[in-house]
Amino acid sequence: MINIISGGVTAAKGFTANGVHCGVRKNRTKRDLSLIYSEKIANAAAVYTTNLVKGAPLTVTKNHIKDGKAQAIICNSGNANTCNANGIEIAEETCQLVASELKIEPNDVVVASTGVIGQPMSIEPFKKGIPELVSGLSVDCGTFASEGIMTTDTIKKEVAVSFNIGGKECKLGGIAKGSGMIHPNMATMLVFITTDCAISSKMLQKALSTDIQNSFNMLSVDGDTSTNDMVCVLANGMAENKEIIEENEDFKTFMTALNSVTVSLCKMIVGDGEGATKLLECKVFGADSIENAKLVAKSVVCSSLLKAAMFGADANWGRVLCAIGYSKADIDVNKVDVAFSSNKGEIVVCKNGAGVDFSEEKAKEILLEKEIDILINLNSGNVETTAWGCDLTYDYVKINGDYRT
Amino acid sequence: MINIISGGVTAAKGFTANGVHCGVRKNRTKRDLSLIYSEKIANAAAVYTTNLVKGAPLTVTKNHIKDGKAQAIICNSGNANTCNANGIEIAEETCQLVASELKIEPNDVVVASTGVIGQPMSIEPFKKGIPELVSGLSVDCGTFASEGIMTTDTIKKEVAVSFNIGGKECKLGGIAKGSGMIHPNMATMLVFITTDCAISSKMLQKALSTDIQNSFNMLSVDGDTSTNDMVCVLANGMAENKEIIEENEDFKTFMTALNSVTVSLCKMIVGDGEGATKLLECKVFGADSIENAKLVAKSVVCSSLLKAAMFGADANWGRVLCAIGYSKADIDVNKVDVAFSSNKGEIVVCKNGAGVDFSEEKAKEILLEKEIDILINLNSGNVETTAWGCDLTYDYVKINGDYRT
After folding, report:
1. Following DSSP, what letter does each residue of A25-83 receive, concatenated?
2. What is the per-residue pLDDT across A151-173, written as a single tens digit (0 to 9) for each?
3. Taking residues A375-394, what's their average pLDDT?
């Protein structure tokens, strides 16, 4: 039984957070530095972008997290600290500043950055911001942390759940930043999750690495895999449940709780994709394998042509078939059924790979909604999966035509 | 020595063509049916889309071209004849109508369609249009054929060259249609090429299959591999050169002539990509293998983020690095140099994987031009390649937000 509760990274026991404006960004009204802190040292797990060009913070974090432990997460927005000559230095010094202010070890600090790639970066804003961050740490300021990591995001993204393990109430919550350079490949954005559940570092990593295959790896905003992606989970054990150290029922419960948070964050990320006006959920049924199901679902949510058609509320299902056809999935296109659905109902547009008569008026009504399901039945088995995406709009072009200025 | 000459598919001896409005499209001012005819039966070669969802005409053409011979090419725009229950029937009947009017064999007719996928299609417009097409066949009407295959293209695309084989002047010319659903994978658009050069079917296929690896497979408009792509070459031998039947000097000359036409058509296609305002040419140098060079070049021209930056004339080179990083090429990102160039000069923006100081003003001046070169030196070998793309603009979204109506 998983219950949605209020809050984000400070919902779990023993976690506080904060977000401030420190000056990495010029806009003084935008928080640009966030800190998450666990009063007890926590077990930690993370996954990273597979892009060969990696932000310097990822290298530092990987090193710090090697021992499976961490106590704080520091993250700035406005500058990705990527392709900078002194990037590692800056990231290390940031951890030292955090550690000295919190009186913890520098190698228990996770560091992340997001923003423009290849811009010079100074340590000065961190020197100013970190003491302010630390002095304001609180449960209530968790929401400021979710704001401090935003780039072109228009809404903050936080969610939390509670669940029960062996009679102990556990909580798990997370924050995420989208909203461009988002494409399935390992982790594809910044997500920080905290929990008071007691779980070993090894099982925490296993839970995270398994979960992202069906959550963050199944979403795309624009096909560009970022250089700075990271999903990091801290588990401080303060719920006092019996520590999860194997794949038992408790682990399953934890996985379900984790998945409910990661899928919620996925939907928030694509719903707030750069310029997006619609959240697309592509559900593939009747596949003979999970590989084929995933190839089809991802290919459809990544198609620029389909995404533009969804923006225009145009039931151009031929573009769904086209994207299925080039997905590299091994499927029989003559068995494919396609339907669109939303709050306004469902409409079948293709049966056995060919068009069927349908009401364009009804289709328009369905597609004018903000959340659209694209339902694909491959009629070849029992495997199903879901991928998430968004529409392609004028505003995506506007936002990215001149992002740096 | 390859000379650019005027004309397109009727530049070579013995070829005539025509294009008319037959009624597949409602807009009466738009030609929607094209015919290319060789007075002598020609050797024929073709390559097709790798999309599993294939237009019915491709199945029919593959069958007709099995014997390496063809004498006519018929192509309509406005309806892709894809995902239609009676698609094969329609395509076969179209060939029969052409054959009976031209007094040739139906299986010497190549048939192609382009337009919306999954729309019902009627044979009636073809019954009306084909006699009109045939009666108007001429060298001068070759340009009408280039118009009849256009979809969202805004300019017609034709080019021709002359070259010399064994003292005989040969000519080779082609027409192409772009301009959306264009992405490197086998052939990625409709292209018809004619030549009077004498070359065996086998060597013609070899020339075409080799050439597309460095021409059409290296371009992308929007990452969507079409269901109806086809490149077809007819060679009627009327230049009376000694027939090319092996990989000799004559074959090399023919390959050079073919490549000059295919690359010209590539540039026309991306320059007229849906909504495009800029032609992007990504030149990769210093690669250790052609595979790595191609992965890098294609990844860069396919990046939505970079394409939007180019639309905004924003020298956001971090997006070039990002696209190199996720290209799956095995390269050392710390050796990568990047520069932008155009008619207004060249500017280095990244050395050894890190930013260098550059004048934003000068970069803007360079990037405001219509043809932009993105120069990438991997500094790891001597292999080079080129890929072509276009910018991502408001008009791409506009065109594709409501393509069907």
Report:
1. SS-TTS--EEEEEEEEEEEEEEEEB--SS--HHHHHHHHHTTTSEEEEEEEEEEE---S
2. 777 888 888 889 989 888 999 88
3. 92
Length of chain B: 405
Q: Which residue, among B113, B229, B316, would best test binding to A if mutated, counting the most A CBs under 10 Å from its CB?
A: B316
User: Touching check for B227 and chain A: CB below 8 Å?
Assistant: yes
Judge whether B226 and B188 are in contact, CB under 8 Å. Answer: yes
Position with higher pLDDT, A374 vs B270:
A374
B225 interaction partners in chain A (CB closer than 8 Å): 322, 325-326
Q: What is the DSSP letter of B363?
A: H
Could you give the count of Cα atoms lying within 13 Å of B398 in the half-sphere of its Cβ? 5
Chain A residue nearest residue B353, CA to CA = A83
User: Pseudo-torsion of CA A270, B310, B175, B106, nearest 10°?
Assistant: -10
Residues of chain B with Cβ-Cβ distance to A325 below 8 Å are 51-54, 225, 227
Q: Is A358 on the interface with B (CB under 8 A)?
A: no
Listed in sequence order, the residues at least 6 apart from A95 whose beta carbon sits closer than 8 Å to its beta carbon are: A60, A64, A74, A106, A107, A109, A111
- In the set B61, B94, B151, B188, the catalytic residue is B188
- A188 belongs to the catalytic site: yes
- Report whether A348 contacts A339 (CB < 8 A): yes
Q: Return the minimum-mean-pLDDT range out of A263-267, A348-352, B48-52.
A: B48-52
Read off φ and ψ for residue A318, nearest 5 degrees: -60, -30
pLDDT-derived band at B199, boundaries 50, 70, 90: very high
Q: Could you tell me which residues are beta bridge partners of residue B5? A: B160
Residue A335: is it exposed, middle or buried by C-beta count within 10 angstroms (0-12/13-18/19+)?
middle
Q: What is the mean pLDDT of residues B197-223?
A: 85
Q: Tell me the chain B residues in contact with residue A118 when contact means C-beta distances shorter than 8 Å.
A: 317-318, 321, 350, 354-355
pLDDT tens string B80-137:
898 888 999 999 999 999 999 999 999 999 999 988 888 889 999 999 999 999 999 9
